[in-house]
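Carboxymuconolactone decarboxylase family protein
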Amino acid sequence: MKKEKQRPYLFTEAVSEELNVAFKNLASEIMKDSALSSKEKSLIALACAVAIKCEYCVKAHKENALTAGATMDEIKEAAAVASQVRLGSGLTFASFVLD
């Protein structure tokens, strides 16, 4: 079974090959091991995807995190942290009705 092309790359490829290559190179550079491991970066990306409520992104970043060596416990914990941040930001925003 052929793996489906990741959605962002469908768009960048449709715009131009140059944009597609530039986006892939940027993603590779950001996600490589450096001060943070690629596993840690994958968990951060997953948490961000949860926080912005992007279903496709959650699925893609979960797969990337698993590939980078993350466990399901680490994935669930990253998602829980993101959920807490999202809840906190909602409560903070709601507090403006008190002004």
